């Protein structure tokens, strides 16, 4: 996650439980992130994964970190919370994933495929929390079959 994402998490919830927290900041004078690992790039974050590796690596924001991560061949899936309510925003996800299930180089997978990948049943359909409507989706990168 980026430094701003880390700082947006209330202190009492940092670091996020049951996972290695790696915070990316290009600021060489960035303060350490108590309970997390500080890295200066996506590459150094991946190299910072503790010995023994990780079964799954998740990128949780912000926009610049998403943009860089999605350029990597290792980025195979997007777990998307599609917010259906309108908000005034100045930051957006760096690629378009259409509500029709198609995106440039990506395709939306079924709920069953999402459940199988995450290893549990994900709530289906539109959810509403504090007046905000959203749905959970999983997208996979389409393999380029052209040679």
UniProtKB/TrEMBL annotation:
Its EC number is 1.5.1.3. It is an enzyme of class 1 (oxidoreductase). One of its GO terms (cellular component) is mitochondrion. Residues 1-141 form the DHFR domain. GO terms for molecular function: dihydrofolate reductase activity; NADP binding. Keywords: NADP, One-carbon metabolism, Oxidoreductase. GO terms for biological process: dihydrofolate metabolic process; folic acid metabolic process; one-carbon metabolic process; tetrahydrofolate biosynthetic process. Pfam families: DHFR_1. Pathway: Cofactor biosynthesis; tetrahydrofolate biosynthesis; 5,6,7,8-tetrahydrofolate from 7,8-dihydrofolate: step 1/1. The keyword Oxidoreductase applies. This is Dihydrofolate reductase.
């Amino acid at each position: 996650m980026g430094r701003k994402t880390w700082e947006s998490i209330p202190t009492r919830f940092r670091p996020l439980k049951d996972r290695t927290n790696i915070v990316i900041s290009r600021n060489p004078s960035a303060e350490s992130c108590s309970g997390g690992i500080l890295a200066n790039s996506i590459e150094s974050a991946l190299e910072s994964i503790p010995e023994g590796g990780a079964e799954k690596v998740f990128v949780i924001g912000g926009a610049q970190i998403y943009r860089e991560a999605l350029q990597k061949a290792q980025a195979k899936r997007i777990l998307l919370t599609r917010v259906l309510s309108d908000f005034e925003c100045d930051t957006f996800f760096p690629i378009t994933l259409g509500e029709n299930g198609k995106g440039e180089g990506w395709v939306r997978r079924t709920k069953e495929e999402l459940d199988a990948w995450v290893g549990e049943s994900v709530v289906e359909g539109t959810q509403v929390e504090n007046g905000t409507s959203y749905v959970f989706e999983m997208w996979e990168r389409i393999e380029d079959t052209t040679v």
